Each structure stands twice: as C-alpha cells, then as structure tokens.
Amino acid sequence: MITGTKKNSLGSLELDLVTNGISPKPKITSPKELLRVLKDRLVAYGLMFPALAVFVVFFYIPAAYLIYISFYHWGILSSATTYVGLKNFDILFAQPLFWHSLLTSLYYTVVMIPATVLLALAIAMLLRDGLNAKRGGLWRGAVFLPHVTPVVATSIVWVWIFNPRFGLANFILTSLHLPALGWLESQQWALPAVMIDSLWHSLGLYVIIFLAGMANVPKELLEVARLDGAKRHRVFYRIIWPLISPTTFFVVVLATVNSWQAFSQIYTMTGGPHGGAGGPAFATTTDALLVYQTAFTYLHFSLAAAMSLILFLIILTLTAMQKWISDRVVFYR
Length: 333
Hints:
With 333 residues, this protein is mainly alpha-helical. The chain has a single domain (95-329), classed as MetI-like fold. It is 71% helix and 1% strand. The chain has a two-stranded antiparallel sheet. Strand 1 and strand 2 (82-83) form a beta hairpin. Helix 11 runs antiparallel to helix 14 (301-329). It is flat.
C-alpha cells in the first residue's frame, strides 16, 4: 500500500509538472538513449558557440584585461608594466576635471531620464489609439526613423541647426520674438543642445517599447472602465500605468545606461573631429568622453581603465538601486 501510494504521488507530481509547462527530467534507460542525449547537447552547444565566442573575445576578455591594467602603469607602446595598486584611482580622485565630468554626466542623466520617459509615454499614448487606423504603421515608422539614422551624420546636421548665426533653432526663436542663444558656443546652452539631439535620436526606440507594453494591457479592463464612466486620465493612472510598470522600469534602466555612456553626440557636436571635444570650457565633458580623451588623446590607458571601472560601478549601483525600487513599485501580472 505504501509503495502504491508513493507511485501514485509521483505520477500525479509528473502530471502536475507537465500541466504547468515544466517537463520532468528524461530518464536514460539505454546506451543508445545516452548517445542521443549527448548528441543533442553537442548540437545545442555547437549552435551556442559562435555567439558565446563573440561575447568572450570582444567583451569578457577585454573587460577582464581592463580591470587588470587599472591597477598597473601600462602603455600601449611600452613593454614595461608596473603594478601601482590604487595609485591610478588616487590620481583620478585628485583631478577636479574628473569630478566635473561625473557631475556633468549626473546632470545629463537626471535630465534625460524623466524627459525620455514622459515624452516617449505621451507619444505612445497618442499613437496607441491610431495603431489600427489606416496610417498607423506610417506614424510608427516616422517616430522610429530617427533611431535608425547614423548618430554622427545626424549630429552634424544638428550642429548646423544650432549654429548661432544662421541656424534653424535661432531662426525659430527670433520668429517668436525670443532672444537668440549661443547653443554649442555657450557654456550654459551647449549641453542642453546635445540633450535635444540625444532625445530626438533615441525617443523612437522608447516609444516602440511603450507601445509593445500597452499592447499587452487587456482590452476588457479598458472597456469595463469606460462603461463605468471612468475618464481618460483615470483609466491611464488606474489601469494602464500600473500594468505597464515593468515596461517603464525597463525604459528607465535603458535610458540610465545610455545616458551615462553618452559619447557620439557629444564628441561630434562639440568639435571632436577638429579637436576641442567636450567644450566650450569643458561644459559638455562627460565621464565617457573623458575616458576616450584620456586613453586616445593623452595615451594614459591605465587612468582610462580605472575611470572605466568607476563608470561601470556607478552604472551597476544605479541599476541595483532601480531594481530595489522596482521590487516595491513594479506590478507583474
């Protein structure tokens, strides 16, 4: 009786696992079955190998070597490598420009995250009702198009737009009887000009992500809310916003990482190809740009590696904090 009970219990357990989409581990009953399992695994690992090799060669090995040289005095043209411990970090922490770059990156990120989330969410809400319309796909393509354009090419166009003498931006301001601005030649307005370019270029991606999240909101809930007389803003705050909170969290994390790593727009718009990137007067020098200049302009690769390690730890800390907050405010169905 006891044996039969155990057998029935195990049988019901396997049935429950299969019902819930969890297949029990297959039993190997013969050498032929063992060879088949090994063959399947070898094929699976073989298909995974190319992608895994790319990650190992171009990401994991360089990342490990970056951590290694951040504790050494290392030069690309010198064969002598000297262990210096934390000296590279001491040199960085004593440099005012390094702290200035961190504050600039923080300011850039703090402004870009809410601007990105709010604008992308607003545009997604405007497009949501028109997705089934005749030209819904055309509008989505138009919104997403800036994201697939080359960053350097579009940044050069924005340089002409922000030209303080004959640019389109000042033409619009003067047409509205507003004072013209110095934009990229002004310490006050250079970074906001770069932010406008970055926001224009990346906004389409986040709009598409929000649209994908809204597509998973059950239409029955929205119809019931409308039948109950709920206003549009109340439907958004009470139904749509909580149900797309995982999507919002993903957008916030993605925008945080992209903002802290912003480089191409800043380098191109502030005179990178002609020297002087990060100007005027270091007004647009972010941490990522300073890493590049330290390594490839001044050839201090060990300091650049230490700076990159600090940048990685900052992004990791911010992501962990966002994850901690999301566990308390994000709603998963």
